[in-house]
């Protein structure tokens, strides 16, 4: 994932093919995909829309429908902790 879109992905935005820097070529549409930045830090998880090869080749379209970005998860944890106080 290109660094310039990391914040949008962390917030739960879908991953577009033009922003994919690398993808496992064995990844198939419908499989779970872990989205990381160029340094390998987790940005989110979701379902692949394209194969790994297509993600690298295509310059248009959604590559991964993100289910959760790390910012969304962190926010949910904070809210949960506040409910116990």
Lay out the secondary structure.
Blueprint: H1 6-10, E1 15-16, E2 32-36, E3 42-48, H2 52-57, E4 62-69, H3 70-84
Antiparallel strand pairs: 1-4, 2-3, 3-4
Strand order of the largest sheet: 1-4-3-2
The ordered string of helix (H) and strand (E) elements is HEEEHEH
Low-pLDDT ranges: none
Decide which structural class fits the backbone.
alpha+beta
**Count of the separate structural domains:** 1
CATH fold group: Archaeosine Trna-guanine Transglycosylase, Chain: A, domain 4
What CATH first level would be assigned?
Answer: Mainly Beta
Radius of gyration over alpha carbons? 14 Å
Straight-line distance between termini: 37 Å
Oligomer: single chain
Compute the number of helices: 3
Percent of residues in β-strands = 25-35%
Helical content class: 25-40%
CATH superfamily: PUA domain
* Largest sheet descriptor: 4 strands, antiparallel
What would a concise description of this structure say?
It is built from 3 helices and 4 strands; from the N terminus they run αβββαβα. By secondary structure, the chain is an alpha+beta fold.
Structure characterization notes:
It is built from three helices and four strands; from the N terminus they run H-E-E-E-H-E-H. The protein has a four-stranded antiparallel β-sheet. The model has no long low-confidence stretch (mean pLDDT 88). It is an alpha+beta fold and 85 residues long. The protein has a single domain (3-84), classed as Archaeosine Trna-guanine Transglycosylase, Chain: A, domain 4, CATH 2.30.130. Helices cover 31% and strands 26% of the residues.
